[in-house]
Amino acid sequence: MSRPGEIDEERLAAALKAGDRRALAQAITLVESTRPDHRRAAERMLDAVLPGPVDTIRLGISGVPGVGKSTFIEAFGRMLIERGHRIAVLAIDPSSKRGGGSILGDKTRMAELGRSDAAFIRPSPTRGALGGVARRTREAILLCEAAGFDVAIVETVGVGQSETAVADLVDMFVLLLQPGGGDELQGMKKGIVELADLIVVNKADGDLADAAARTVADYRNALRLLRCASPDWRTEIIPVSALTGSGVDAVWDAIDRRRAAVAASGALEHRRREQARQALWAELGEALVEALRGDASIRRLVPEVERRVMAGRASPSAAARDLLERFLGRPA
Amino acid sequence: MSRPGEIDEERLAAALKAGDRRALAQAITLVESTRPDHRRAAERMLDAVLPGPVDTIRLGISGVPGVGKSTFIEAFGRMLIERGHRIAVLAIDPSSKRGGGSILGDKTRMAELGRSDAAFIRPSPTRGALGGVARRTREAILLCEAAGFDVAIVETVGVGQSETAVADLVDMFVLLLQPGGGDELQGMKKGIVELADLIVVNKADGDLADAAARTVADYRNALRLLRCASPDWRTEIIPVSALTGSGVDAVWDAIDRRRAAVAASGALEHRRREQARQALWAELGEALVEALRGDASIRRLVPEVERRVMAGRASPSAAARDLLERFLGRPA
Asked: 0.90 cut: is pTM over it?
C-alpha cells in the first residue's frame, strides 16, 4: 500500500466508487491523517465521491468490553451478507491509548466476517482527540457508502464521551447489554441507556437464558419510566445469543422496520441533513479554536489564563475576550 | 432602576458585595445585555467581585410544567431561609419565546418567597440563544454568590437542550417528577433521568400518596439498571409534598450530605475548576464562531454553503476549511 502522501486522490476516488476495498482502506487512512496536505487531498477526494447513495443504514453499536460485541457484530454481519447487504465496521476507541492497543487491532476479532468480500472492517484510529476522531469517522462512513457498503456500523466501548458524538453520526444507536443488574453500566457515560434506540441483551443462551429474559423484562419496565426517546419510537429490547445466532434476525427486523418508518416520514432525510449542518458548524468551531490555540502569542498566555479562571480570579468571559482580541488583532 | 448604560460598575460591584438585592438585579441585567459596551462593563464588574465565597451550593432543578416546580421551590426556599440560608432562584426557559411569557414572569409565582429579604428571584431572560443564556446564567450565579446568597437554584423546564448546559453550571442536578408512569418525560431531553443526582417525586399527598410511593419504588428499581451516575453517589429518590412541606427537609439533608462528601474529598473544587476551564473554552469557541458569522463576506456565503453540505454535495470539512480561510485571510 502506498503511503497517503503518494496517493492520487482522483484515482483513489474512482477505485473506491468501483468498490475496491484496498482503495477504501487507503482513503480512510487519508482522512485520518492530520498532515495539512493529506487533509486537503482527503477533502478533494470526499467532494469527488459526494453525494453518495442514500439508501444506506448507519448504526452506532456500543457496549462495554466483555459484553460480546465482536461476537454479535460477526453474527449480525454474516446474517446481513446472506441477505445481500455489504457491511462496514468502523471502531472508535477512546481507551486505546490506555490499553496500548486498539479494540479492533486484534486480528482474530471478527475473523470470519473479515474474510468476506462483502465486509470491510476498520480498526480504531489510535491517536487524536475524540472530537477529531468523531469528525473523521463521519467521513469514513461517507467513504464506505461511496464504496457500496450499505450498512455502516460504528462501534464504541461506551466508557468515554464518544457516544453522544456517535449518536450524532448515525441513524440509530444500539446498546448491547448482558444478563444482570446493570452493573456493567458502571463507568459508562451517563444517559447512554436513554440514548439507545434499541437495546440488545446478549448471551441469552445456556445457563444465562433465564437471566436474560428477566433482564429484558426489567429494562422494559425501566424504560417505561424513561420513555423520552422519540415520540414515534419506543425503544425495543431484544434478547440475542450471538453464539447461536438466535435473535440476530429480530434485531435486523427491528432496525429495518424503524428505518422504513423514518424514511417514509422524511424524518431520516431531515436527521441526516441536520447532522451534516451541525457537522459543518462543529468543524468550523473546532478549526477556529485550533487556529487560536496554534497562535504562538496565544499559546504563551493560555496556562496563566486557565489558572486564573480555574481559581475563580477571572471570569471565563473576560478572559475569553482578552484572548480573542489578541488573536483577531481587533476588538471583539 | 437606572439603565445598564448609566451604571458605574465599581459602585455596582460594591453595592452587590454589600448584599443589596437591587444592585444584584441590575448587575444581572448588565450581564444579560448583548450591547458591546455593557458586556465590557459586565466583565469588569465580574472581575471586581471575583473570587466569591466558595462555601455555596449550586443546584439545577428541572421538571415539566405542572409537576409543581414553583410550589416545591417555594417550600424548599422557605425551609432554607428558616435554617439561616439565603437563596437565589434563576430561571432558564428556552420555551418562553413560544409561550410569549417567561415561566417566572408571572408575579404570583413564589409570591411568599419573593417577599423575603433572604430570597432573590430572577425571571428567565426571554431572548438569546440557549448557549448564550447558559453562559450568562453562569455569571448570574457568581453574582448571586458575591451578594451573599449561598444557595443558587437554576430552574429549567427540561423540554429543551438546556439541561446538559445547566448540569455543567451546577454542583448537583435535581429532577422533579410526579406520581405516574413516566409519561411526563415525553418530550423531555433524552438522558435527563440518568443525569439527575437526585429525584424528587412531588405530590406525595392525599389521593396521590400511594401512587407516589409506587413511583419512588419503580424509579429505584429502574435506576438500579442505569446506575452509571457516579461511582461514589447512588441517585436518591425522595417523595415530597410541596403542598404540606413533608419530605422537603429530607431533600435538603440529601443535598447537604452529598455536598459535605464531595467538599471533603476535593471533588467539588475539582468539578468547579473544570467547569470554569470548560466555560473559558466554550466562550472562546462561541465567540470565534460569532465573529466568523458576523463577517460580512462570510455571511453572504453561508446559505449556499449550508445548502450544499445538507444536500450531501460537499463535505462539512472542506466547506468549513473554505469559510475559515476566507475569514482568517490565510490558509488554515
From this structure: no
